[in-house]
Amino acid sequence: MLETSARLLRLLSLLQAHREWTGADLADRLGVTPRTVRRDVDRLRELGYPVNASPGTGGGYQLGAGAELPPLLLDDDEAVAVAVGLRTAAGNGVEGIGEASVRALAKLEQVLPSRLRRRVSALHEFTVPMLRGAERSTVDPSVLTELAAVCRDGERLRFGYRDHEGTVSRRTVEPHRLVCTERRWYLVAWDVDREDWRTFRADRIEPRPPHGPRFTPRPPPAEDLAAYVSRGVGQRAYAARAVVRLKVSAQEAARIIGPSGGALEPVDGQSCLLRTGAVNLDVLVVHVMLIGCEFDVVEPPELTDRIRAARDLVGRAVESAGVKEM
Fold it and tell me: CA-to-CA distance for 129 and 182, rounded, in angstroms?
């Protein structure tokens, strides 16, 4: 027979891994009598674990959600952070991580109090994944949960917004969805004062409650919000725009180009279109050249002229370097 403390841990593990157990099944797994199982369940309840019991022949034991978070050595914010992290890991396609994350997430969410489960669910339900890119920006988790909550509840949001030059403006919006990338988080919202859809970087948002009143959600600006945000951060924000046909597949290009680098559109298995932008055509030349694969310029024709000029400039520099070496 297992010692009492080890048996309690084993019992807790069984309850977390299965929705419901009969007393007889638990007794058989633990090698004890049903009476001992009942005593051990009572001990778990004394420790704060909400074990529900249903009587009768079809009844059994089930680990449920209680009024307080059981003693997992996690505070509320840590529990939400772990749950959100597990959900992200479960869906990011990393080999060997997804399945384990799903199992761990199921165990955690089964015992989360309802107030915490609502916070986690809001982040999940009102977030659209767009998984490309490598560089990350830092955003306060409490800001993310606050943004997700106003999206969920359909409440107007007031906040201070800092642009890329550091200038702060006051905004009032009808929040729609959060879009997450491996680099950044964005809020897609209807700007009340500008009467148009806008995309805001979450790390530049400073909420200024109280929020409200409630509003009737508008039709979203696009069916594919991930593509909408990608186009916005990669093209619409810039004065110079271009379309380039890359001679690699869209899947291969996505490993090189982050979401803010432009929007990719598959053409066939060997090529794709990149719609991108920059502050001017000269910066666009550098951006396209640094991708490191063969390409054709679709538009604008002026970009081809700038590339020729850059080629001539580099050629002269190479020739000059060759003369000096001789």
Answer: 9
